[in-house]
Amino acid sequence: MDFQPIIDFIKTLYPGKDPIVLHEPQFTGNEKKYVLDCIDSTYVSSVGKYVTLFEEKVAEFLSLPDTRYPIPDTKSEPLFCVATVNGTAALHLALIAAGVKAGDEVITQPLTFIATANPIVYIGAKPVFIDVDPDTLGMSPMALRALLKSLVTRHRSLPKACVPMHTFGNPCRIDEIVEICNEYGIPVIEDAAESIGSYYKGQHTGTFGLMGTLSFNGNKTITTGGGGMVVTRNLQLATRLKHLSTQAKIPHPWEFAHDAIGYNYRLPNINAALGVAQMETIHEKLESKRQLAKKYADFFSTIGIQTIQEIPGAQSNFWLNGISFKNRQQRNEFLQLAVNQNVHCRPAWELLPTLEMYKQYQCEDIPNAQRISDTIVNIPSSPIN
To answer: What does the angle CA 237 – CA 239 – CA 240 come to, to the nearest 5 degrees?
Structure first.
């Protein structure tokens, strides 16, 4: 197959760009103004007005429903956000707050960035990998139920948490996952690192489970340079998360007293200043990315290549636009052509259970994840003007 028309079409979307990167940040609002204000205040570390303001703005945004659907019942419950230095730290804190301890098992998916599984192992817990759905690329409720039924039948202890991930911004069937886990008393912590601006059945991703986590890395839809956030509707959990993120220091005018092993995970004020400005233009960014996704879908439909699309009930932020090839060889041929012409395209991740440090952990049958890993390529997805 001749892949050059794909490269040529991508170049028409980003004229004058060399290289054309996979996803780059856009600073079109008050970023410089707020960062300079932060510097002038001298509060550039983890104390300052922008941290709190950023948390409030994100909580407000996540509370907005997708207007195409009835307002979810959870709309009346307030959301609490705790800003962290990155999404990995957010997930680490969330697992600790959920009570996961060394030796416990945590269900997650094999098709994800390694940061989904690493915090599980930080604690000394053990990931259990189950398959994904071929249309969402996220955790399969069917595979989840099969695993839990099997554990009960064999009188095995149940995992202490479940961490599904919204892959490339595409919502998984999170309502079914939460319902299944509730039946078995297993808390759900959503890895929504890639999915700010994504909704499922009218509700924002990251707000279905006990907690959700976001990332604001430099390559995300909204960036603070490096940053993350834990989201929850439980005020007691939010209070504990913030406490743990600030070294578990007990407030006092001068004493250095601590009541737990804490972490230096609080987002610095200077990063939060960037985030506040980014949140002011999030709707424009999301609309631009939706237009880009449509352009890609229209183009690829003319050459017989499948794009990753929303399932019924879902609204993706289209953080990354994915296309599907017939096999790994064809995928690699396209990737080599893209590299040669300075167009940054990337495959899905290598499946985590195939990595040396994760081979020792339990992995169920994962044919869907394997097929996706072999065939999916993400193409440049920065917002277009």
So the answer is: 65
How far apart are alpha carbons 205 and 213 in whole angstroms?
10
Work out the burial of residue 248: count CB atoms within 10 Å of its CB; fewer than 13 is exposed, 13-18 middle, 19 or more buried.
middle
Residues 6+ away with beta carbon under 8 Å from 184: 148, 152, 158
Please give the Cα distance from 321 to 168 (Å, whole number): 8
In angstroms, rounded to a whole number, what is the distance separating the alpha carbons of residues 266 and 290? Answer: 32
Buried b (16+ CB within 10 A) or exposed e, 219-234: bbbbbbbbbbbbbbbe
Model pLDDT for residues 283-302, shown as the tens digit of each residue: 999 999 999 999 999 999 99
Residues of the chain with pLDDT under 70: 67-68, 70-76
361 CA to centre of own chain: 23
Predicted TM-score of the model (pTM): 0.95
Structural domains of the chain sorted by starting position, each given as residue range(s) with its CATH number in brackets:
4-25+282-353+362-379 (3.90.1150.10), 31-281 (3.40.640.10)
